């Protein structure tokens, strides 16, 4: 049997010199060589099959297998926006409405602008940096998946409290006499309750009074809160008389 030029479908008998290949198929070398030579030799033969750049065919095939030429749309980068919240909002939780406008394509394929109201549920105890994602709420573009819209919680400064993790920290000014003899702290919480906290210890510049369970809610532990920590800014007298100095020395020495 004889095999004709590739893909010709020709199979015919030929009584000349044969070559036995690994599949047991005999090929007439003389006519095969003439057929290849008539197409510019081996280089012309492969050029006819693959073009000027033989390896380009393989590169293109590989790119297609990886999705490089499949036309699959890419996704646009996320759009991030800061969402300022008061400490009261983050303590109690709240709902915020955000109005956005974006470019979309209508049913007829024409570009138009659409306005939308997004609702964000702020949970008690959320921290600065918490992200809320609305998938594919960015502008629509041909061949591009719309970007996600991401709001990032930002904490506004508070006039009384600073947040330290799940704790709340407040600083109160007291006199030296109060630091030595006792003091009663009055604190209004973020949800409007009034706390009266007697302090019977001697207050040093580094002393903190800790009130357990009066800090920020802990989102992953419902019903639990951090602590309230009260720090003190002790006001020292600018001057003392000789009698006052003597009295203080006598008092502190005797104790």
Automatic annotation (TrEMBL):
GO terms classed as biological process: protein folding
Domain Chaperone DnaJ C-terminal residues, every copy: 80-237
One Gene Ontology molecular-function label: unfolded protein binding
Listed GO CC annotations: cytosol
Entry annotated with the keyword Chaperone: yes
Pfam families: DnaJ_C (PF01556)
Key words of the record: Chaperone
Membrane-spanning segments: none
Protein name: DnaJsubfamily B member 13
């Amino acid at each position: 049997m004889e095999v004709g030029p590739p893909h010709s479908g020709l199979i015919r008998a030929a009584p000349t010199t044969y070559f036995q290949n690994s599949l047991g198929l005999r090929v007439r070398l003389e006519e095969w060589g003439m057929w290849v030579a008539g197409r510019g030799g081996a280089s012309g033969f492969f050029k006819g099959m693959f073009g000027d750049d033989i390896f380009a065919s393989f590169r293109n095939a590989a790119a297609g297998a990886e999705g490089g030429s499949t036309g699959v749309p890419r996704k646009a980068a996320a759009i991030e926006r800061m969402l300022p919240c008061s400490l009261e909002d983050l303590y109690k939780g709240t709902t915020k409405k955000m109005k956005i406008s974006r470019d979309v394509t209508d049913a007829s394929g024409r570009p138009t602008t659409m306005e939308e109201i997004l609702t964000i549920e702020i949970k008690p105890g959320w921290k600065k940096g918490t992200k809320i994602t609305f998938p594919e709420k960015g502008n629509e573009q041909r061949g591009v998946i719309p970007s996600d819209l991401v709001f990032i919680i930002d904490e506004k400064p508070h006039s009384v409290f600073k947040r330290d993790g799940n704790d709340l920290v407040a600083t109160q000014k007291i006199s030296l006499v109060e630091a030595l003899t006792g003091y009663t702290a009055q604190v209004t919480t973020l949800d409007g309750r009034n706390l009266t906290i007697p302090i019977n210890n001697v207050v040093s510049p580094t002393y903190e009074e800790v009130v357990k369970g009066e800090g920020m809610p802990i989102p992953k532990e419902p019903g639990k809160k951090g602590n309230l920590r009260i720090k003190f800014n002790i006001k020292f007298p600018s001057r003392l008389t000789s009698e006052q100095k003597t009295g203080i020395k006598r008092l502190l020495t005797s104790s």
